[in-house]
Structures are given as C-alpha cells and as structure tokens.
C-alpha cells in the first residue's frame, strides 16, 4: 500500500496513522499535541494537511492506500499557521530566559519550523496563579497551550485519572481532581505529565532557575528581559530572537550532561536519561526505554536525592569497641583480607559466607560469587531473591523450565485477561501496572485480582476475590480441577505439550469448588465465574508477587499458577504466560549471575562435575563440590557456631530478613563481619569493617529486569568522596587474597560471564549500547528471546510438566491470644525500609513514616482512630506505630508497610519458611493489638495521593473543545473530522 506525500510515493503500513507515515517519510510537519506514545489527541490543529483537496488533521486520520497528501499547500500551511498562532496566544515566548530552552521544546521548534515572525493573536495571561504546591513539579497556567498531552498521559497512559481540562470555562486550564491544588489531589507524582508537556507549563522544580544561563536571575530582572524582547519583536520579528535563544540553548549543551541510566528501585527496569549539571540532578527524562517508554513512577522520576545525600558513607570505617573510626582503604582492605584468611585457616572455607546485592550490577554479583567460590572456596553464597522470588522460580522450574517471566511487559499489555495474585502492582511495580490499567480501560482487557487488600488494581478489577490468608493454592487448584472436569481445558495443547496430565488430575481430587469455598471464604459462584473467565479468554497472563511466594507453600502456589496456565494452553503465544514480578531492580540478575548457593552463573549446577570442571579450568582453581548455605541457613549456622565470618554488600539484612531480632542476635555473634554500603544502614551497626560503595549513578554495569531484560547503565558522576564501585572493592579484596584478577572495566567482567554461561553467551556491551537491550537466553549470535517457549519448553523432551502440589497448612496461625492476621509489603513512595527514598525530601513529605492499616470494623471494635498509637506483638517481637483506618483492609486483617528502620515489621515475622526454598513466610504472621491510649496526627498527611478524588474520563475529550462557540476549524469550514482511537 502506498500514498503520495507532496507528490512523492511512500509505502505505508496497514493501520498506520497518517502523521506517522508523514514522519517516516522525512517530511517535516508541525505537530504540537501529537506524541507517538500517546496517540492522537487532536487539540492543536497544527498538523493540518490537504488530502484529495480536503483539509484534515494528519494525527487523527489513518493512511489509506492511494491517498494524495499535501503538507505544504497554501491552504494547509495557512491552517497550520493559524492553529499555531492561537497556541502562541496562550504562551509567552521568552525562550532565552526559559528553563525549557534545551533544543527539545516543541513550541520553540514549531515557531521556527513555521517561520513565525509575528503573532496575530497576542499573548494573554490567564486569571490563575502558578501552582507550586507539589514538591517535585509546578504548573504555570500562563504558559499552558492547552494541548492536553498531560491529560492524555495521566488519564490513559498512567491511568491515574487526575487531570482534565475545563473546556467549557471562559479560561480553560489543566485541573487536578477537577480543581484542587496539585498537592491535595490524587496525583501520585509519577511525572508522566511533566515528561510529555511540550513546553514549560509543567516543569520539574529541579530545573527551575538551573538549566539556563539567565534563568536564575531575580524575577524583576527576568521580567525586564522578557519585556525588552516583546518590545523589539514587532520590529525585528521572531527570527533573530529565536537565533539568540538557540545560541543560548547550544551553550547549555556544554554544561548540562545527559546520561542514560536504569532505575535502581523496582524490577520493572525503567530506563531514562539523567540530566545533570556538575553533581546536581536537573531531571529524569524518559523517552525510549524498552520497558517504560515515557513512563516512570515517583521513585524513578524524583527519587534520586540519596545519591548526593550528606549521609553517604565516604570513607572506610573500622570498629573500635562500640564505635567506628575512619580508616584508609589500605588499612580496611588489608584487615578484611587478613581476617578472611585467618578464619578460613582456622575453621575452613565453609565458616565464611557471602551475600550479594540485588541493587548492584550483574558484574558485581558475578565477582562476589567468584570471590566466594574461587578465592575462599565455599558455596555459601546467596542474594535476597531468597526473601521473595525463589518460590516463583521453583514453580517455573518444575513446570516449564526457565526461572523467569515467560514473556515481556508487552505480552501482559496485549493479554485478553490478566490475573493478578498477591501483588500490589500499582504501588510495587507502578509502570508495569500502568500497562494493565491502560489495556483494561481502553482495550477491553479483563482483570481478575486476588488479594487480601483492596488495593488499586483490586478496585479496578472486573472480579476481585479476597481469599482467607494463605489459601491461594486451594482456590487455584479448585479452579483448575473445575476447568478439567467441565471440558474447559485446552486438551489439544496438553496432548501436544504437557506431560503428566493424568497424575496431576488425580492430585486435584481434594480441591473441589465447595471445599475451596469453605477454605478460602469465596462463594462457589465467584470461583466458577473466575474459572470460566480464565478458560474462555483468548490469552491469559498471570502476575504474582510476594503475596504468593512468602508462605510456607509459596513454591507450591507458584507451581499451581503455572499448572493452571498449562491446563488452559496459556504458554507459547504472545499475550500469555507466567509473570512473577521481580522486586528489586536486579534481583533477577543477581540470581542469573551465580549469587546462589547451588548454581554458578546461568543456573549451572555446582554439583555437576562437568560444569565444575569448566569453571575450574577457566578460574584455575579447585572448586567446592557441594551446594552451600542459603541466607536463611546462614543465620542458623551463625547461631550454632558453624559460621564465623560474613561479607554482605548492598543488603539491609538485619531488617529485611524475617524475625529481625533473631537475625540481629546472629549478626552480633559473628567473629568478623564486613558490610559494603552507601549509607550507615541498620545492618552496619553489627559490622567490624564498613566499606563505602558507589550507587548505580557512579559506575557502569548491567541490570536485568523482571522481563529478563539486560540493560546497560552509564556512569553519571564520579564516586563521592572516597567511595568506590562495588566491583572494584570486591576485586581488591580478592587480589589481597592472591586471586590475581585484572578487570579494568565491567565490560571485561561480562566477557568472562558470557564465555562461561550459555544463557548469556551472546551478551556484549556493544549489543547493549545506549538503549539497546537483550532478553535472555541470548545465543552467541546475539539473538534473544522476548517470549520464551515459542518452539518448545525448557526440558529435554521439549514438553512442559504438570507438577502435583498438595495443600499445606500455613504456619503461625491465629489463636485466642494472637488473634489478628498481619500482612505487610511495599508502598508506592518508598522502596522497602526507605534507606534511599527517605533521603528525598518530597517523598518524606508525602509519606513520612510507617503506619498500620486497620479496618473500620476492627477500629470500631477496639476504639481506634486514625492517628492512635498501637502496639503489635507477635510470637517473635513487638512494634509500635500509628493506625490508619481504611477499608483497604477487612475485618481482623492488618497491613503494615515496610518503610521503617525504627519499627520494622520484620520484628514481628517468624522464622518459618517455604518448604522448598527457605523463603521466609513473611505473610503468615499473627499478632495481638494493644491500644496505647495516645492519638496524634494522621501518619499519612493530607498531601498523600490516597486522599485525592480522581476524575476519570477518556483522555482529553477534545470534542468538548470543538463544541465551544469560539472554536473554529483553522483553514475554513471544510475540515474533515476523521478520528481514530
Ligand atoms: S498522576 Fe500526577 S504526576 Fe502523574 S501524570 Fe497525573 S498529574 Fe502528572
Ligand atoms: S500543561 Fe498540559 S495542556 Fe498545558 S502545555 Fe503542558 S501538556 Fe499541554
Ligand atoms: S521504581 Fe520501578 S516502576 Fe518506578 S521508575 Fe523505577 S523501575 Fe520504573
Ligand atoms: S498534532 Fe495536534 S491536532 Fe494533530
């Protein structure tokens, strides 16, 4: 198919928007409101073209075979200019003194493109104040051109549904929750609106007065300069004025650095450019990220203050009695090497243990496990996936073969039905959640949510089920049995691709719908509806997280999820599959790269003699043949005297492991404990030596996100003070122990990884250049697999396996004394205990402390109000916090987020673990509640987004603009409205 553009023939793709075809052809055309990731908004009218003699908006039309398009005919051009003139009436053009004059301002660039010399419609101020209330960004109505990009992004991409434009008003503007101050609205500070704003109406506060050479001038001086420009414009025209501002923009290039990096918080793997001036962070600019495009959440967009925090560790510290003294690197590293050697000599290599960081890079995890195995001689090596992800990985290993998400976020986006179990996706994986919210809102995707809390996804779901705590395995198995019994299974798929169907079906005998209903407290009708929705959907993705894994039956429930997908044929196709949502930015990568007690990198078994021989040859050492201790076993081993020394980096072990009091007691018993950190964390209190490390912005390397996506991060800053990248520190320790390593850059480490790891055989830094990514497995020729199991499953016969899983009673159940169930997890604003996020003043302002969510029923029963101080006591410890009364939780179920160092929820959790993986059963905790008799302010301030009142609508609703009596189509009345969604 083809069209002609200005007389030249161009091929088009089926369903392509006309504006995309024009842009692809290289023809320049004005397009102020259009953004390819938002789709057509049709508010600005600057993309007018003539098609077969009629004017239409190129963004709102589809290209059709044989179309004859003219973009620069006198009529089209006049319409474009007229439309843009109206825009300039809403925008004071003061580019030279504007912080958005960075070469990428759409209004500036369109002024130039259309050769605007004078504007017909003079700029007029709007009768509104600038809104500076949000800690991270501001809205200036006077500069707002009413393009609606921000509204579209907030309503239909982020789907927070905060923004709208009051098109019927005499002076339309962007509204938050229909007219609230930004900081008192439902705005979650994700920054989508700021990112897509084509001018300076919405700007990051960190840019204001900082980006330009003249923008920091006092306001009267700035106003004076703007006045001078306005005065000379009628005489000289915009041409020379634009030239001046372009010179100033070019000057900025030498002092504003833009560096691509990858978010260091959750496992979604958002990537973006970081704009910096010296050590100052000006802004985060997402655009091309493979996982996120223009999307971010509050943490990725605005949560980077920790990097320059004065609390950063900048010198090595050595314990002296009950305190620490600063030391030189030489002294600290020599001490570490000497003590490791002494412990190894005295009590053997297995009396040392190593824990790698899920926040640090793949290369650093690789070096840590190499240090443990090749230099010390132990497999006592683990990472924090033990605390969250190991059961999900086990469930997938049992059934389909690879321990990772079976597809990409784009598969989740295109699924006919998404089932979310035990995941607060909108807060824990915010950008991934936006893709589900968007598909559900706009594209008819069905959504089922199973959770204890009525979180945002639950509120949006077509079906929300609230099973009794720890009973997901039961209802999943019952639904699968029902599907088999009622002929709803995909028999053709099972016959061809799955082993063990008969035995598996037998194993489902105890799981009737009636039993499940009794056990889980869900009506049979609801379960039947869920079964039919899953079986009848054209494609299903199941997403799960720690609400599933952190139980004694976490691996079994994960297995049941995969069994259900197999029974319904929901693998091997786009839009299907299993998605355990990885928590930390690099928790997938830490395991992938060998930070596990039983696997070398790429899940190659340490007890396989051939594999071991390969590593022994490459590393020129003899390696220990037996799997080592996982991090749960390490704590027990310290208590019973087998483990004497430990080296941990980037892991708040004493707070994030369950039964924190027991863990703390263990750490204080160690003979020698090395912590490598960016802050003096709680765990550092137990250390003998603390080594100051560099966060992601101060080093190079790669992260692997939940989609198995490997991405490069580039160095933004030099390490602060004397801090150093973790890989350099680990190498120095290894070399002091005689290793003779010589890596001068992380890329050299990756060369070694690729040479020894078939799963990553084709990964090279060149193939990951800039925004390029690879999703493992990566073959030697560099081809990767965004969707797994396209040709076969990862077992020798190419088939998947049904894996029978029995019912297991949860641990630590309620009784007369410990009568309440305590759930725990993340919050949108904070990452885990908040070591990084609390350094951001704006985040602290919105969410200053932890709290306990109490249901209205329980609150009434116990006389609790929001703000009441309560004490929770479990069989293992106690914490005090203030209550928040909310209907997110029900009955005798409480929820406590993890964001506290002082009162960590893990003082309450037990040492029970998942049967298969030793992942702590964090979600099986019973407590008693004592009301302490004091009531203070709400621990969640009014400025927290949960108190807002969103105003859902379908995008910007441009039709309301077109209905205004003062609106007329530019270029006359022959405009053809062809709308596409
Ligand atoms: S939630 Fe707030 S920051 Fe995010 S797009 Fe909407 S208005 Fe903007
Ligand atoms: S604030 Fe919104 S409507 Fe105004 S110019 Fe920016 S993106 Fe467009
Ligand atoms: S925290 Fe997660 S969702 Fe938010 S920006 Fe970072 S990677 Fe993206
Ligand atoms: S780009 Fe704004 S109407 Fe088409």
What does this structure look like?
This protein has 981 residues and is an alpha/beta fold. Helix content is 31%, strand content 17%. The strands form ten sheets. A seven-stranded mixed β-sheet has the order 14-13-27-26-25-15-16. One iron/sulfur cluster (SF4) binds next to helix 4 and helix 5. Residues 31-34, 42-47, 57, 59 line the site of FE2/S2 (inorganic) cluster.
What is the secondary structure topology, with strand pairs?
Layout: E1 2-5, E2 8-11, H1 18-24, E3 48-51, E4 54-57, E5 68-70, H2 74-88, H3 106-113, E6 137-139, H4 149-157, E7 163-165, E8 174-176, H5 192-196, E9 202-204, H6 219-236, H7 238-253, E10 257-262, E11 271-277, E12 280-285, H8 298-302, E13 317-320, E14 323-326, H9 329-347, E15 352-356, H10 362-376, E16 381-383, H11 390-399, H12 409-414, E17 417-421, H13 425-428, H14 430-442, E18 446-450, H15 456-460, E19 463-465, H16 472-485, H17 491-497, E20 498-499, H18 501-507, H19 513-520, H20 524-536, E21 540-544, H21 546-549, H22 554-567, E22 577-580, H23 587-592, E23 599-600, E24 604-605, H24 609-619, H25 631-639, E25 645-649, H26 653-656, H27 660-669, E26 672-677, E27 689-692, E28 701-704, E29 709-713, H28 726-736, H29 746-756, E30 774-775, E31 800-801, E32 820-825, H30 841-846, E33 852-854, H31 856-862, E34 868-874, E35 878-885, E36 893-897, E37 925-935, H32 958-962
Parallel strand pairs: 1-5, 15-16, 15-25, 17-18, 17-21, 18-19, 20-31, 21-22, 25-26, 26-27, 32-36, 33-35
Antiparallel strand pairs: 1-2, 3-4, 3-5, 6-9, 7-8, 10-11, 11-12, 13-14, 13-27, 23-24, 28-29, 29-30, 32-37, 34-35, 34-37
Helix pairs in contact: 6-7, 9-28, 10-28, 10-29, 11-22, 16-19, 16-20, 16-22, 25-27
This protein binds iron/sulfur cluster (3 copies) and FE2/S2 (inorganic) cluster.
Residues 31-34, 42-47, 57, 59 line the site of FE2/S2 (inorganic) cluster.
């Amino acid at each position: 198919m083809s069209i002609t553009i200005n007389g030249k023939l161009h091929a088009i793709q089926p369903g392509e928007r006309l504006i995309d075809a024009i842009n692809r052809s290289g023809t320049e055309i004005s397009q102020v409101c259009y953004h390819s990731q938002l789709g057509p908004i049709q508010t600005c009218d600057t993309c007018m073209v003539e098609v077969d003699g009629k004017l239409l908006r190129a963004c709102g039309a589809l290209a059709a075979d044989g179309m004859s398009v003219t973009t620069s005919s006198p009529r089209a051009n006049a319409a474009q200019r007229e439309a843009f003139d109206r825009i300039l009436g809403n925008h004071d053009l003061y580019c030279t003194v504007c912080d958005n004059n960075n070469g990428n301002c759409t209004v500036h660039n369109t002024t130039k493109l259309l050769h605007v010399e004078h504007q017909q419609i003079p700029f007029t101020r709007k009768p509104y104040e600038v809104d500076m209330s949000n800690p991270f960004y501001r809205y200036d109505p006077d500069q707002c051109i009413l393009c609606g990009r921000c509204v579209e992004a907030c309503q239909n991409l982020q789907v927070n549904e905060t923004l709208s434009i009051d098109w019927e008003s005499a002076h339309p503007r962007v509204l938050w929750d229909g007219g609230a101050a930004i900081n008192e609205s439902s705005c979650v500070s994700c920054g989508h609106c700021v990112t897509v704003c084509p001018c300076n109406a919405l700007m990051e506060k960190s840019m204001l007065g900082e980006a330009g050479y003249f923008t920091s001038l006092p306001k009267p001086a700035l106003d004076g300069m703007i006045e001078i420009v306005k005065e000379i414009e009628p005489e000289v025209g915009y041409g020379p004025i634009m030239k001046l501002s372009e010179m100033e923009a070019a000057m900025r290039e030498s002092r504003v650095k833009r560096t691509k990096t990858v978010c260091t918080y959750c496992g979604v793997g958002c990537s973006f450019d970081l704009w910096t001036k010296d050590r100052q962070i000006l802004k985060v600019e997402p655009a091309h990220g493979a996982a996120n495009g223009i999307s971010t959440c509050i943490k990725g967009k605005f949560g980077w203050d920790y990097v320059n925090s004065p609390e950063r560790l900048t010198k090595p510290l050595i314990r002296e009695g009950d305190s620490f003294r600063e030391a030189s690197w030489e002294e600290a590293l020599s001490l570490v090497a000497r003590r490791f050697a002494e412990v190894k000599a005295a009590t053997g290599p297995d009396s040392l243990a190593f824990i790698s960081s899920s926040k640090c890079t793949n290369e650093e995890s690789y070096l840590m496990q190499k240090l443990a195995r090749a230099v010390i001689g132990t497999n006592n090596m683990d990472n924090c996936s033990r605390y969250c992800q190991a059961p999900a990985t086990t469930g997938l290993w049992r059934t389909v073969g690879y321990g990772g998400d079976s597809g990409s976020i784009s598969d989740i986006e295109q699924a006919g039905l998404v089932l979310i179990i035990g995941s607060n996706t909108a807060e824990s994986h915010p950008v991934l959640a936006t893709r589900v919210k968007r598909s559900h809102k706009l594209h008819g995707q069905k959504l089922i949510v199973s959770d204890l809390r009525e979180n945002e996804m639950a509120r949006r779901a077509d079906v929300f089920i609230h099973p009794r705590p720890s009973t997901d395995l039961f209802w999943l198995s019952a639904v699968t049995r029902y599907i088999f019994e009622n002929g709803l299974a995909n028999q053709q798929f099972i016959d061809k691709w799955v082993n063990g169907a008969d035995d598996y079906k037998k194993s489902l005998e105890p799981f009737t719908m009636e039993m499940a209903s009794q056990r889980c407290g869900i009506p049979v009708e609801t379960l039947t509806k869920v079964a039919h929705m899953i079986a009848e959907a054209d494609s299903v993705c199941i997403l799960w997280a720690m609400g599933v894994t952190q139980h004694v039956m976490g691996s079994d429930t994960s297995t049941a999820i995969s069994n259900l997908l197999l029974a319904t044929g929901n693998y091997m196709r786009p839009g299907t599959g299993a998605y355990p949502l990885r928590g930390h930015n690099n928790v997938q990568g830490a395991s992938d790269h060998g930070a596990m007690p039983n696997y070398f990198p790429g899940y190659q078994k340490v007890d396989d003699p051939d594999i071991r021989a390969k590593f022994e040859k490459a590393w020129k050492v003899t390696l220990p043949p037996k799997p080592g201790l996982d991090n749960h076993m390490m704590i027990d081993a310290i208590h019973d005297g087998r483990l004497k020394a430990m080296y941990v980096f980037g892991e708040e072990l004493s707070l994030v492991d369950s039964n924190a009091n027991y863990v703390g007691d263990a750490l204080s018993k160690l003979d020698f404990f090395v912590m490598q950190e960016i802050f003096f964390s709680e765990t550092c209190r137990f250390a003998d030596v603390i080594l100051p490390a560099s966060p992601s912005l101060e080093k190079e390397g790669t992260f692997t996100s939940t989609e198995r996506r490997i991405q490069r991060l580039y160095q933004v800053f030099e390490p602060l003070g004397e801090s150093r990248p973790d890989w350099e520190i680990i190498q120095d320790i290894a070399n002091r122990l005689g290793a003779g390593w010589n890596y001068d850059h992380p890329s050299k480490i990756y060369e070694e990884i690729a040479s020894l790891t078939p799963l990553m055989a084709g990964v090279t830094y060149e193939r990951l250049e800039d925004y390029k990514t690879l999703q493992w497995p990566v073959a030697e020729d560099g081809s990767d697999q965004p969707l797994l199991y396209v040709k076969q499953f990862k077992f020798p016969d190419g088939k998947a396996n049904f894996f029978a899983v029995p019912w297991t009673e949860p641990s630590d159940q309620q009784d007369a004394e410990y009568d309440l169930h305590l759930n725990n997890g993340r919050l949108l604003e904070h990452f885990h205990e908040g070591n990084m996020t609390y350094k951001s003043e704006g985040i602290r302002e919105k969410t200053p402390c932890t709290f306990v969510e109490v249901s209205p029923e329980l609150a009434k029963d116990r006389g609790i109000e929001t703000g009441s101080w309560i004490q929770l006591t479990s069989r293992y410890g106690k914490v005090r916090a203030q209550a928040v009364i909310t209907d997110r939780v029900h009955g005798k179920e409480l929820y406590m987020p993890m964001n506290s160092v002082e009162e960590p929820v893990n003082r309450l959790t037990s040492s029970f673990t998942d049967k298969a993986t030793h992942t702590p059963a964090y979600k099986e905790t019973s407590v008693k509640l004592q009301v302490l008799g004091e009531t203070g302010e709400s621990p969640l301030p009014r400025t927290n987004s949960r108190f807002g009142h969103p105003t859902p609508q379908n995008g910007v609703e441009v039709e309301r603009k077109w209905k205004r009596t003062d609106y007329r189509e530019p270029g006359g009345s022959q405009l053809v409205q062809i709308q596409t969604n």
